[in-house]
Amino acid sequence: MGQNVPVSDTSDYQPTDPRDEPAPLGLMVLLTGGSALAIIVLVTFFSGSTSLRPLLLGPIMLVGYEVLVHEVWWKRWWGAVPGAIAGLVTYFEGRAMLADLIGDTWAHPLAFVTAWVLFAVVFCLASRYPRTDFTAQRARP
């Protein structure tokens, strides 16, 4: 009863710097895939309007928004390059393969959504590297 026990030990406390955090995998994949699906539905239903074609690049704006909101450090953005390569290969090769199997009507939307989801997955996984600890830099007197 007479012992003085500290209520909380703050010696292990390290404030987290947002730049130490990678891009959020689940949220990024869900939002990018959802936006790609919504865009392909809009473009498919309103296919007579050529002004909707720029909407096909919409998911990249969402990725940019997520990077800004979550303050993903700029050196973690390198994952966009392999993500874009994987997405483009998946889209063009997947679309050609799916067109042979299920026809071009369904191949384009399926390949489009799959390519954007793959882009988001590769980008988020790559954003985990390089590992840097910015809190150690701020802790110096």
What does this structure look like?
- The chain has 141 residues and is mostly helical.
- The protein has one domain.
- It is built from 5 helices and no strands.
Ends apart, CA distance between termini: 39 Å
Q: Specify Rg, calculated over alpha carbons.
A: 21 Å
Structural class: mainly alpha
| Biggest pleated sheet | none
**Number of domain modules:** 1
- Average the pLDDT over all residues and give the rounded result: 75
The gross shape turns out to be elongated
User: What pattern of helices and strands is seen along the backbone?
Assistant: HHHHH
Number of strands: 0
Percentage of residues in helical conformation: 55-70%
Strand proportion: under 5%
Question: Which spans of ≥5 residues are poorly predicted at pLDDT below 50?
Answer: none
Q: State the helix count.
A: 5
